[in-house]
Amino acid sequence: MFELFVGELPIDRPFGVVSTMGNEKDEQVTDRYFLVNYLDFIIGYNEKEVVSANVTRELNLEHLVDITEWKEGMVIQFSYSVQWTPLPHISPSQALELQLKSTMPHGHQNMDIHWLAIINSFVLMLLILSLFLLIIIRVVRSVRDLSRYLQIPDEELNAVEEETGWKLLHADVFRAPKHRLFFCSAIGAGAQMTSMMIMVVLVGCIGAYYQRGAVASAAVISYMVTALLGGFVSANLYQKLGGEKWAWNIFMTALCFMGPAFLIWSFLNTVAIFYGSTAAFPFPTILLMFAMWACVTFPLTVLGGIIGRHRSLKQAQAEGSPFPCKTNKLAREIPSCRWYQNPVTQFFASGFLPFSAIYIELHYIFNSVWGPRIYFLYGILLLAFTMLLLVAGTVTVLFTYFHLNAEDHRWWWRSFGSGVAVSAFFYLYCIYFFLQTGMNGFLQCSFFFLYSLLAAHGIALMLGCVSFYCSYFFVIYIYSRIKAE
Question: May I ask which residue range the UniProt record assigns to the signal sequence (predicted)?
């Protein structure tokens, strides 16, 4: 395949042909390889601006060079022709949009596949949401029933409470998780990634990406601006959990995504330089990227962290404890759990169900990132992304309720781990996609697997943050109802 741009309009076409010759019965089948050495461009113009570009796909034997027995030093002559066509009905502002839509194969069928994927995700979300609402109704009803229990002696009331496991954890459920500094840093970085992704998709929905490099530029700017939110969320939560090393917390928030990203990019840029690839970043671009992080992203993270910490301190002075129940000094013993309450079961279910809502759309995104197609269906992507967040959050809340019913108060990291589970399925899909592409060589393999690993890391932070906060508000809601009664 080759991909080139004519007047900022993308063109792609197979550059070679494989011909199978022989008889399969006689087992004398050979493959011959031919190279296309002639291109016929058809370019439309309007007001001295290029508004369409295409290459004829008709192959002529005169324009095929047999390279089956390639020898070093062979010289191949390439040629092209150009046909200019006036197109007054296409304006220059609509050129790229029409060019992208014309390259979509089987446009009608293609859109049907997208909408079927959205409907599938919507039905899945309704089923999980129905189960979630049934649990909420049951919880609220059981809490309301406590009012009549208050009329009986304490011994009998305690016996009634022991019948439902999650009520027994009111003195342990808000116990700070282990490694809370790293936990809050990951949540803050996930909030930043989530808000960045929402901004990028929303900007794409208004059609602002019909220019080369617009998606990358929007992603970089959004990441820098949302650093304020990431620092605020991380420091605010860390202060609520009683953390004292708030400066380290803010620093770790700033490095939670950019640290791995810098290491992976440094290695891949070195590989690209060694191979002489144009994928290597020039030195001025490297300095610019570092300056943007050091002068914009990091200061905004620090500013957001300071604001979030002071906000938490003010709330503590005005309202007291941020949680509806007090925490005992000694942790409650955790009993053995059943198979459906096992962390492995949660990891599989909380990863597979949300991933099933987006895997079809992932195919088109991967063809855009690693193939010749340019993705532009951001309205569909917004719906798929919304379904992903809803399904991931709802499934995590359901498993959090199961764990609390099993008298296991360690829900903090497990709720975050649901997002990590989705990223694990995402990376497995990356491996499957790689096996279908036929990529080879150290340069291609290293770029694909390491950048896919970085994308999986970002998805883990993003969905981990969403899953955690869904569980967080659910836990506060049900235990505040106990306190109210």
Answer: none
CB 418 within 8 A of CB 128: no
443-456 pLDDT, tens digit per residue, is 999 999 999 999 99
Q: Give the single-character DSSP code of 326.
A: -
The whole domain housing 96 covers 2-102
Element (H, E) at 248: helix 246-275
pLDDT in tens, 21-42: 766 555 666 788 888 888 889 8
Predicted TM-score of the model (pTM): 0.80
Same domain assignment for residues 132 and 93: no
Domain boundary pick from 85, 102, 119: 102
How far lies 25's CA from each of 22, 30, 138, 421, in Å?
9, 13, 68, 49
To which residue do tokens 């650093």 refer?
227
Q: For 5-23, give the DSSP string.
A: EETTEEEEE--EEEEEES-
Alpha carbon distances (Å) from 285 to 280, 282, 288, 291, 456: 10, 6, 5, 10, 25
What three-state secondary structure class fits 128?
Answer: helix
Total residue length of the chain: 485
Give dist(CA 401, CA 136) in Å, integer: 10
The pLDDT assigned to 157 comes to 46
Domain check: are 349 and 416 in the same one? yes
Distances in Å between the Cα of 13 and the Cα atoms of 60, 85, 94, 103, 190 are 15, 21, 23, 11, 39
User: Do residue 316 and residue 277 come from a single domain?
Assistant: yes
Same domain, 48 and 135: no
Where among 75, 102, 129 does a domain terminate?
102
- Residue 277 gets the label, from left (phi > 0), alpha (psi -120 to 50) or beta, of beta
* Residue 144, phi then psi, degrees to nearest 5: -65, -30
DSSP state of 52: E
Asked if the model's pLDDT at residue 198 lies above 60, the reply is yes
The answer to whether residues 172 and 199 belong to one domain is yes
Residues 427 and 312 in one domain: yes
Structurally, how many domains does the chain consist of?
Answer: 2
